[in-house]
Specification:
Blueprint lengths: L1 H16 L2 H24 L6 E5 L6 E5 L7
Antiparallel strand pairs: 1-2
Length: 72
């Protein structure tokens, strides 16, 4: 969603209207959102039986098993 709303849409409007600020703003956020796209690509094959959370110290994520309903 940030790729579309803060990246591609402002860049396209800036390109069409000739507004340099919107073009640079949209280009910057398009590049910034590519990290999100890489993460989605890495997670797309993952089953729904796992929890995914942000890593607290490093760039990336942690994948862990869901607890069974009987264990809770």
């Amino acid at each position: 969603m940030p790729l579309l709303l803060m990246g591609l849409l402002p860049a396209a409007v800036g390109l069409v209207t000739g507004n340099g600020f919107l073009l640079v703003f949209g280009s910057f956020f398009t590049i910034a959102a590519l990290g999100d796209c890489i993460m989605l690509f890495m997670l797309h094959e993952l089953n729904y039986d796992f929890y995914v959370s942000d890593h607290p110290e490093k760039m990336g994520f942690i994948i862990s098993d869901k607890p069974d309903a009987e264990e809770q």
